[in-house]
Amino acid sequence: MKRLLVCGVAGLAVAIAACSSPSQAPSSGGAAESRTLTVFAAASLTESFTALEKTFEAQNPGVDVVLNYGGSSDLAQQIVNGAPADVFAAASDATMKTVTDAQLTAAAPTVFATNVLQIATAPGNPKAIAAFADLAEPELKTVVCAPQVPCGSATARIEKATGIDIPAVSEEPDVKSVLSKVSSGNADAGLVYVTDVNASKGRVQGVSFPESSQARTDYPIAVVKDAPQADLARRWVQLVEGTEGGSVLGAQGFGKP
Q1: Rounded (5°) CA angle 25-30-36
Q2: What keywords were assigned to this record (predicted)?
């Protein structure tokens, strides 16, 4: 919980008592120190990391976890441009490389989960989409992620491997935007991660296809160099990579590295 303290000037003793800095360590038996941990995470981690946020805050009284979700490529660029972050969890090695090439991780990233694409359709699959090749049909309104985003890069790899080109009607900035287009009826199909279909709670239906294994997505995580809360950042990574984190991720459909 964040507070704004306004200090008066009437009486030095009163001012000192009323305006002690919230960053000071609490006295014995006092309230826990208030700190903020900022985590930049790929949009496809939304449900898993939101669940882990509650666990982490319960384990670390006084800590507020701020989760910044988005396309991994955008988040990586934000970090390179100086955005304050403690942890970066990306949806591909390539987007993490943007940060490591700039020497902005405290240590080498580690892969904590994997994912694969799935075709999302309206519930009941009214267009009877059964295979990746079906998405080449021009009468289908298919949406995909933009090529610089990990889910878009994975789509492009499958297109190249199969020789099938998808005439997408739009390229979205992240996987959640693709899912939204399908669930709202603005698209017949979209390529998203299997975890996003699971998290939709029936708003879309998933169609698996064997070619998805040719573009498995790794999820690396790293503490950002000179992180404002480096100790908390390391604890967050330990939670994500530990048994508790693995259980939450697995329940959403993520694979093990």
Answers
A1: 50
A2: Metal-binding, Signal
